[in-house]
Design brief:
- This protein is mostly helical and 209 residues long.
- 53% of the residues lie in helices and 0% in strands.
- It is globular and about 40 Å long.
């Protein structure tokens, strides 16, 4: 008789999702791996956009440069309270924008929401590339990869992923940013100004690593 293979729990799937997702630069890939570890440590069923935001702030200097120093410190201070406070109500739910399926292509130009872009694309699910992520986080990841490939041909950076996440008002990252006093519209504009704006933030003494 063949030995029975135990089924993985949602927490196991978050832990064993792939970190070597193609189309990400080194900082974004490091942030994704750290977000997976954080989700497992906190006992969360999936990696959501708030996990990704936390890890991007810790691992990506360009993402930190998109915020001013006090904003970044306040935001990190809020994010670390997730496992003992506001995040507890998220543990029984799934982060999405109305159950939109995750797909491998993004068909709409411009900065539409990640979920809306996925809905318009109508492609096939890309589960292998986004295993363990919430539907909305997976959609944001795919949008960032597709837009980076289309605009520059380079891997997606952390700021590309941040822009995709904050484009959807249903994202938990947007809720966290708003509660921490960050103007999401200003943040998106700063990101869309391009690398010069992020470089200016780094030269101006942005938050240290």
């Amino acid at each position: 008789m063949q030995p029975r293979i135990p089924r993985q729990s949602p927490r196991d799937r978050a832990a064993h999702g792939r970190d070597d997702v193609p189309g990400l630069d080194a900082d974004a890939a490091a942030a994704l791996a750290a977000a997976r570890r954080r989700a497992v440590r906190d006992g969360d069923r999936q990696v959501d956009t708030a996990h990704l935001l936390h890890s991007l702030l810790e691992h990506d200097p360009q993402v930190r440069a998109a915020f001013d120093g006090p904003q970044s410190a306040r935001l990190l201070g809020y994010l670390v309270q997730r496992s003992i406070g506001y995040g507890l109500r998220w543990q029984g739910g799934v982060e999405d924008s109305g159950g939109v399926p995750v797909v491998t292509a993004v068909g709409s130009p411009g900065r539409t929401s990640a979920a809306a872009a996925v809905a318009e694309a109508g492609g096939a699910p890309g589960a292998a590339a986004v295993e363990g992520l919430s539907p909305l986080a997976a959609a944001a990841l795919e949008q960032a990869r597709q837009e980076a490939a289309r605009h520059s041909g380079a891997p997606a950076r952390g700021v590309d992923l941040l822009a995709a996440m904050v484009s959807d008002p249903q994202a938990r990252a947007v809720e966290v940013l708003t509660r921490a006093g960050v103007d999401v519209h200003e943040l998106r504009a700063r990101i869309e100004d391009g690398p010069q704006e992020c470089a200016a933030g780094l030269e101006g003494g942005g938050p240290a690593r």
